[in-house]
Amino acid sequence: MPLCCVLSPVCRRLGLGTQPVLPSSLPRRHCSLLTGSTTVKWRKGNAGEGCSLPGSSWGERLADAVTPLWRLPYQEQLQVKYESQRKVLQTLASRLQELGVDVQKPGELCCPLRPVVPSPVINGYRNKSTFSVNRGPDGNPKTVGLYVGTGRARNIVCVRADHVKNVPSKHKQVGQCYEEFIRRSPLDSCILFHEGGHWRELVVRTTSHGHTMAIVTFHPQELGQEALATQKALLKEFFTSGPGAGCALTSLYFQESTMTRCSHEQSPFQLLYGEPHIFEDLLGLKFRISPDAFFQVNTSGAETLYQAVGELSQADGDTVLLDVCCGTGTIGLSLARHVSKVIGIEIVEKAIEDARWNAAFNGISNCEFHSGKAEAVLPQLLSSWEDTRPLVAVVNPSRAGIHYRVVRAIRNCKAIRRLLYISCKPEGEAMRNFLELCCPPDPGKKLVGEPFAPVLAIPFDLFPHTVHCELVLLFSR
Q1: Which residue among 325, 424, 438, 469 is the active-site one?
Q2: % of the chain at pLDDT higher than 70
Q3: Helix 404-411 crosses helix 429-438 at what angle (to 10 degrees)?
Q4: ∠ Cα 283 287 290 (to 5°)
Q5: CA distances from 13 to 7, 49, 70, 166, 310 (A)
Q6: Does the active-site annotation cover 367?
Q7: For residues 96-107, average pLDDT
Q8: Does residue 450 carry a catalytic annotation?
């Protein structure tokens, strides 16, 4: 990449000017933006140290770690993200050329790139936050917040999220109350499993209805059922009639977990208080949300995204929509009235239960949802596909992308002429998916179907103040 600074707004704000600079001369955060090797992530244990100005408070250092663009005006944030997505498309064009596919368009892109679609809400937009428990700046091991530093560097500090712009005040309130509760508790926090301790992370989910769900993760260690029951009763009392009552929780869940991450099937979410689900409105529909069901973290931004997906799909009353990694069914259900049929696939069983409930509650009868790994369900579904109606696929996977068998099934299904791939990390594993979809036929890899070609790319900023956005890439053949 040229060493000239493509992020001139960032450089101006940092006092670096617009002269050519080496990435090493930039603070770490903006060096990552230039090289494309973003190190800052939201999830526990992955947040980078960020780039902080001399004399920054711990709150500012945390904001720099989890929301690296927070110091920039929003329009400049969008420009940073546009340049990042432009580089992704340049890389894809270059990689495809290496495979003998000539897709390069003006500007060395593989397809036209539209400007980043801004988020309708810029601050406090997250409807889900995951707070860790670890040692704070003062050394207290019962601090609830987000991480500055990394586990690899062994310099993690857990800092309260009071000044993080994308976390809503309700989430901060519940986090502060949980901290107060565990500091009152005689039980230790669980930082390293083998060192003992019990109190672990807190997940807070909220909706525009004013619903608030809190999910507390607890390592049981050697505690018996009676001792566990006591801790659950104390937690419930604190949030229903004690100091935490002001949080006005709709649902309070408790999960005993001896692993870093547990699904409901591995370790059930235990409802201690309130309603088993919270509810959200999206594009005129009502959606039920379980503790571990996927739902886009920016609800208003998701509405903008899904409306565009509907337009780009060009689906009509004769179309069958294939919704891969469908979560609670938001995309498929929001488009159901425009298509003949929706088929959704999702690995999280509780999310599929929510999707089916959502369809029934909203009076939508042309949807079917399949629970299981997409790489197991989709090939079987498409191998016997004989429907003559047009088939449009929408893929919305996690950062890990989709399994090779899913790509192969889509590629080898002649009925799929149009594909929309939604990625929050297109420079990662999704890039491999793009190449597999577009490369020349390869019998050795069982990619015998006609290749797709990228047609249009539109970034949607669902994550203001961070370096991330959702890239919608339209493929056709």
Answers
A1: 424
A2: 88
A3: 30
A4: 145
A5: 10, 20, 12, 21, 38
A6: no
A7: 83
A8: no
